[in-house]
């Protein structure tokens, strides 16, 4: 089951994915009470971070569970000059978090199914997309008919091009894409209509 906590341009969507009483929380940015209500008496096994920007991680210190993040973004969680917190008070501290490092193709267990981690750099060095039950959670890497910014700290256009092409060329067309902002889409629709993917494919091999 996939539960959406809808965000906006400034606050990311958060997702709670559950299977047989076990759940993972993706990019907890807002609506703490709503998340608790949906969680109910189910077990929260962990938090999955697509990348370390402030609009995706505000609540990671609010739950007593492991926090999974790519090693290349782990330090960015605490570099407030670059992660979006700036002079604002970051609501979590390093010593309060049980950080677990993940890498490309890692698999995490959720109930009787697996969550597959795809390292998809470009928006940040350690951006990750998570595949679970025909849903791909892309953070700020891939949006409906759009892609993430590459001009922020740790961003890289070459990496972003490669990440987008690999995702769209290798994953099943029926997979639903659940981005960090805006509307859901599918791999099929993005291969057909995403102008960035179409342009980059025409440019040749990445």
From TrEMBL:
Taxonomic lineage from the root: Bacteria, Bacillati, Mycoplasmatota, Mollicutes, Acholeplasmatales
Gene3D superfamilies, alphabetized: Ribonuclease Z/Hydroxyacylglutathione hydrolase-like (3.60.15.10)
Keyword field contains Lipid biosynthesis: no
Cofactor(s) required, per the database record: Zn(2+)
Residue span, Metallo-beta-lactamase domain: 11-181
InterPro entries per the UniProt record, alphabetical: MBL_Glyoxalase_II, Metallo-B-lactamas, RibonucZ/Hydroxyglut_hydro
Name of the protein: Hydroxyacylglutathione hydrolase
GO molecular function: hydrolase activity; metal ion binding
Residue spans crossing the bilayer: none
Keywords on record: Hydrolase, Metal-binding, Zinc
SMART domains referenced in this protein's UniProt entry, alphabetically: Lactamase_B (SM00849)
């Amino acid at each position: 089951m996939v539960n959406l906590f809808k965000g906006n341009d400034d606050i990311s969507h958060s997702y709670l994915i559950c299977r047989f009483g076990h759940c993972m929380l993706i990019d907890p940015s807002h609506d703490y009470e709503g998340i608790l209500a949906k969680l109910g008496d189910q077990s929260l096994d962990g938090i999955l971070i697509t990348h370390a920007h402030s609009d995706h991680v505000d609540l990671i210190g609010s739950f007593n569970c492991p926090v999974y993040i790519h090693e290349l973004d782990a330090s960015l969680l605490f570099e407030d000059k670059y992660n979006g917190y700036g002079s604002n008070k970051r609501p979590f501290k390093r010593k309060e978090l049980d950080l677990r490092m993940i890498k490309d193709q890692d698999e995490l267990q959720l109930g009787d199914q697996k969550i597959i981690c795809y390292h998809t750099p470009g928006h940040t060095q350690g951006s990750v997309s998570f595949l679970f039950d025909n849903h791909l959670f892309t953070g700020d890497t891939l949006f409906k008919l759009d892609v993430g910014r590459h001009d922020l700290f740790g961003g890289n256009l070459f990496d972003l091009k490669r990440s987008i092409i690999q995702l769209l060329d290798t994953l099943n067309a029926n997979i639903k894409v659940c981005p960090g902002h805006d509307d859901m889409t599918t791999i099929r629709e993005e291969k057909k209509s995403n102008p960035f993917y179409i342009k980059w494919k025409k440019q040749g091999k990445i």
